[in-house]
Amino acid sequence: MKNTKIAITRRATIAAASLVLVAGGAATAAATAAAPSTPAAGVAADFSAVTRSTAWNLVDKLQLKFHTYHPEGIAFAGDRIFLSSVQIIEPTVKYPVPQGRYDRTPGKGIGHLFVMDRKGNLQKDIVLGEGNMYHPSGIDFDGTSVWVPVAEYRPNSAATMYRVDAKTLEVHKQFTFDDHVGGVVRDKATGHLIGQTWGSRRFIEWNLDGKQLASWDNPGHFIDYQDCQSLPAHKMICGGITNLPQTPAAGGASATYELGGIGLLDVHAHELLHEVPFQQWSTAGHVATRNPFKIAADGNKLTMWVAPDNGDEGDGTEILTYQATVPAQ
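Request: output the structure for the sequence above.
Response:
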C-alpha cells in the first residue's frame, strides 16, 4: 500500500453566502454551513490531514420514510438527493462448484434510483436494470447527470451503465460491460468514467461510449470501496467496508466484524494516496461507511454523508451527517 504524501493547495474558504444545503432541509445549522456549492473543493487536501485520531461528530440524522430496501450509492444534485438501492426478491446462492465463470446463481431483484427533495421526501422511483442485471451500485453526479451502473449480483458477470439527467430525470442507457461494475465516478479532469469491479479489486476507465481505455488493480487491500466521488486533478475519494472473521470467543468463523474506511486515490497515477479507518456505527449497528458515501470541504472542515442501514433495519434508512475539523493546510 502506498501512502504517498500529496501536495495540494486547498482553495480559500468558500463564502457562507455560496453555501447550499445538500443533505436535506432537516439538517442542523452546523451541517448546513459545511455544505459548499462546490463540494469537491478542498476535499483532497483536507482528507490528507485526517488520521486515525481525527474526531468525527454526528451532527444530523435524516430519516427516509419510504421503502429504501438495500441502499448502495448517494449523490447530491442541487435541490435533489439521489439514492441507488437494490430490492432483493430471490437471493443468490453459491454453487457447490463454479459453473463457467459464475460462482453463484443470478438471483432476482429490482434496481431502484430514488429521487428525493432536500427533506428526504420521495419524488420519483426510477427502476433501472434488465434481465439478471438488477444491482445498482455506487453513483456519481457530474454537474448535469447522475451515473448509475446496474450489474448482476455476482462477480465476473455483466453490467449496464446508465446516465440520468438530474433535472428532467430522463434515463439514457449508455453502454454495457462484460463484468460486474460496483461503482462509478466521472473524472473531473478528463471527463472519462472510472468504475470498479466486484469488491473494488480492479478499476476500469472508459470513454462515454463505453470504450475501455485502461484497467489496473486496486493498489489498496484495506477495504472494498462501495461508493466514490470524483475530485479535481485526477483524484477520487471512496468510502467502503470489509467484513472480517471474528475470533472463536466472539462467535467463530460464522461471525464477522465490519471494518469501515475512506480512501483517496489518484486515477491517473493509479496510486492510493491516503487511507484511514472509520469506526462509527449506525442505528442498526453497521459501520457508517457501509455503502452510500459522499463528502465535502469548507475551509478546514470536512462534512460526510452516509446511509448505512437498510429500510427494514433499526429506524430504517437514515442519512447520517458527520463533521471533522482538520489542521489548516
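Residues 19 and 307 are 22 Å apart (CA to CA).
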